[in-house]
Amino acid sequence: MYDLALKNGFVVTDTEVFRSNIYVKDEKIAEISTDDKEARQIFDVNGKYILPGCIDTHCHFRDPGVTQKEDFITGTQAAIAGGVTTVFDMPNTNPSVLSAKDLQWKADYFSKKAYADYGIWGLALGKLNLDELPALCSSGVSAVKFFWGYAINAKTKALIYNYDPKDTDVVLPPGDGEVYELFSEMAKTGKIIAIHAENNELIQTLTDKLKQSGRTDYEALVDSRPALAEALTIQTAALLAKATGAHLHILHLTSKMGVDIIRKAKAEGVHITAETCPQYLFLSSKDYDTVGPIMKVYPVIKHEEDRLALWQGLFDGTVDFMASDHAPHLISEKQGPLFSIPAGMCGVETMLPLMLNEVNRGKITLPFIAKVLAKNAATIYKLKDKGSLTVGKDADMVVVDMQKIDTIENNKLHSKQPLTAFAGREIQGWPIKTFLRGQLVVDNNNIITNAPCGKWIK
């Protein structure tokens, strides 16, 4: 007898939608068929759609280090509430993930807190941990991240957006020669090297000029961190990836210029992939007057032409998938002057609903969602048990009600500091049940599992 059955649903893959039942045994999808079979637990989904559990490879859950903003319990609860069953946690926590020893410590730490399955990013600091990368990459790290052009706090490993080169308590950004060595080492490991692509020298120069001008409007923020800053870094990184054979991944892509460079690099055979985020697909600078400082993120949300180019890149495969860049701050921190408040907001819980709404608007299809929110990330990060509703895969499933209409509200989110730029947006299409490896963990926005049940994916 099967452990679980979802009956009378429409199964969504990355290529088709068909009516069927899904049967689960030992946490795996065991059968997909129209045959009526017995199971210990049966859910009649009554014609609703069943999607693969979403994968969010870009989450800052702030744990350990700044758990007043978020922790791994609340962050992964927010994830499963939004239909995300697999998350990757970013490495710039305190302590950060610089070695195989750090990785194992964090995996053990998360094992007592995880409500979703999880991968863990490693952090590259140039020559400071170059020798640690082979062991780190062979110990189960999901990928390695490099903050191009940014200094790092020497004690906390927190990112420093604006630094003084004379400071003694910072790890200064590595030069291009050091980055070449990093890419070469990562090519040997076969793991992805992912970059935050902004040219900080250009940003510092432009920011200083804007401060002197006295401008504090949103366009000033965009002017201080323009598309050129992203494009310069992507271009250099693509050339280094081509020279070394490294698999380069561009995080949170924001600009038309960036899309164009990646499209050209892919055509030339460079091993490059890219993601973008909901904030860049659903917002542009014109929304600031309505949304306000909450929408400040880094890289910044740019112009309408950039937003449209990102959608086109997602449609034609230049942009491979979506991730949230979930990065909460204290609600009080996000209420100051634009240039002073921190960059980041909640995102893991609203990503799928925003996309479901686009299906109802006729812009995209459910198979497209299965591709850009599950299948492609699983393929790129080699998650053999994740990413699709296929026999033998983990039974990570999301039942969605495409008729349900509700409004995104901060007080409905599960994060510790619930604040999103999408508050007040009416959405048609919501996840109503989330299954993690065959276990019902969310039912109508309520976390119903009594204990963390997530596992480390390595």
Automatic annotation (TrEMBL):
**What Enzyme Commission number does this protein have?**
3.5.2.5
Show the GO MF annotations. Answer: allantoinase activity; cobalt ion binding; zinc ion binding
Q: Does the keyword Metal-binding apply?
A: yes
> Which stretches make up the Amidohydrolase-related domain?
49-441
GO cellular-component term (any): cytoplasm
UniProt keyword Cell division present:
no
Q: What is this protein called?
A: allantoinase
To which species is this protein native?
Megamonas hypermegale
